[in-house]
């Protein structure tokens, strides 16, 4: 910084010096021209009077300093030239009564000649100006950088600096506080993510171990001949159920991992929420019949631009949960609505409901409100986590309303522009 300041000050000083020299030369040139014209006018009038009173003889006796006098006939013939060998600069011509003309020219030094003769002094002045500029630039740069170098950028204190630098110190202190706060937030977020990672790993291990243990136990019983022939089919069915549960769990984990990836490209396309909900309703018709639950679809089209796969996963998990956690003879209503900027789908059930204190945690991975009922239904505990991360990927907003013993409504509001937002 000190070198940049020195360079800036030095170049500025030299630029000012050159500008001053140029202005001085211009003013000197103008002044010399004015003086020369006035002098030539006076000398021309004097020479004219001399010729008219004394003729050529008197003109030859006339001596004008730094002047060349020429007398020209009416035809332009040179009648007299006081210094034919000299080159002239400025000229003043005076017509005489007989039609001839008298021409007086300046043979003195021009401004350019004067500057050439003054080259050595000017060079000395330029060198002196450069030295003085360098000294002043060094001193100015030092005067500016030393107070800055004294600032403690880790713990800036206004009492240690000049008045002019106090606003800078205040900004540094504020930035330090912001950086410290952000670092603390990052540290807390890192700790939270680390805790979630450990919990996720432990939960995955537990969830995978449970069906594997069952499969292994049933298979060992059959292998060792400890199962009666008439029970083999029932035990094999349990193995198939646990294997299917294991496959569902692995599938949900993979889907959740894909949703949590950052920087991936989503295949965005125009969609109708009503049409996607209709397809999900058809897919879950068998489950609804087995559970004795009626599924109804209502509302408008709900046109959005989004990832078809993620929207399908969101709707499938919400509808599947609404059916699974319902009561026999209950109902599930899927309602689609839209406004100018958003399209909304709400999945309402008449199921067991969720306690108010449990609502903030229902989107956590492997979290179950009713663990015994969930295991009886074979759920993986990842359905609502998939819904949450899918909504984040699409920039959608989630809202949950539930009354214990009455039912639950989960609403997803999608932006119609289809812009992906960061969580």
TrEMBL record:
Entry keyword set: ATP-binding, Cell membrane, Kinase, Membrane, Nucleotide-binding, Phosphoprotein, Transferase, Transmembrane, Transmembrane helix, Two-component regulatory system
Annotated Gene Ontology cellular component terms: plasma membrane
Keyword tRNA processing (UniProt): no
Catalytic activity, as annotated: ATP + protein L-histidine = ADP + protein N-phospho-L-histidine
GO biological process terms held by the UniProt record: cellular response to phosphate starvation
Enzyme Commission number(s) of this protein: 2.7.13.3
Keyword Iron: no
Residue ranges of the TM segments: 9-30, 114-137
SMART domains cross-referenced by the UniProt entry: HATPase_c (SM00387), HisKA (SM00388)
The name this protein goes by in its record: histidine kinase
Organism: Candidatus Avoscillospira avicola
